Amino acid sequence: MKIVIAGVSGSGKTTVGGLLAERLGCDFIDADDFHPAENIEKMSAGRPLDDADRVSWLEALGGFLARSGPVVLACSALKRAYRDRLRELGGPLRFFGLDVERDRLAERMRDRNHFMPVALLDSQLATLEWGDDLRRIDADAPVLEVVERIANSL
């Protein structure tokens, strides 16, 4: 099984994804590791990525997923088109979207050392497309509860 933990920056994708992978006994991968240097530089400078910036990133992720076995991937996957492209390239995927209130997201982002600045949060929230392909999970709950909720739904 291939699972994607999706959401905006600060939603807990890496934390939840890592714990879920451990719980399921499979590999964990963070999509941030697949960004080309230009994307990281752009985001670090406070400029949001556009669809063109994400093409090579999605291609690299899809190729990885196509070659992988069971895995949990932490990936923003903000638009349905991005999720569809990952499915096209990587095969069947289950997407879980972590839903957190904006103020809590900003607080989390300020409290960590990451290339994504709080200034880009609103652009990510504006880009996020909830849909029937993305199971919405309340991630304001304690992290182990979030992990269990996802694991129990598989």
Task: Describe what you observe in this structure.
- The protein has 154 residues and is of the alpha/beta class.
- It has helices at 13-24, 37-44, 51-67, 80-90, 102-110, 121-127, 143-153, and strands spanning 2-6, 27-30, 71-74, 94-99, 134-138.
- The chain has one domain (2-137): Rossmann fold (3-Layer(aba) Sandwich), CATH 3.40.50.300.
- It contains 7 helices and 5 strands; from the N terminus they run βαβααβαβααβα.
- A 5-stranded parallel beta sheet has the order 2-3-1-4-5, covered by helices on one side.
- The relative contact order is 0.25.
- The mean pLDDT is 89.
Main beta-sheet annotation: 5 strands, parallel
Domain module count: 1
Class of secondary structure makeup: alpha/beta
> Which consecutive residue ranges, at least 5 long each, have pLDDT under 50?
none
Helix content: 40-55%
Number of strands: 5
SSE string: EHEHHEHEHHEH
Q: How many helix segments?
A: 7
Task: Calculate the mean pLDDT score and round it.
Answer: 89
CATH architecture: 3-Layer(aba) Sandwich
Task: Report a brief summary of the structure.
This protein is of the alpha/beta class.
Q: How are the elements arranged and paired?
A:
Layout: E1 2-6, H1 13-24, E2 27-30, H2 37-44, H3 51-67, E3 71-74, H4 80-90, E4 94-99, H5 102-110, H6 121-127, E5 134-138, H7 143-153
Parallel strand pairs: 1-3, 1-4, 2-3, 4-5
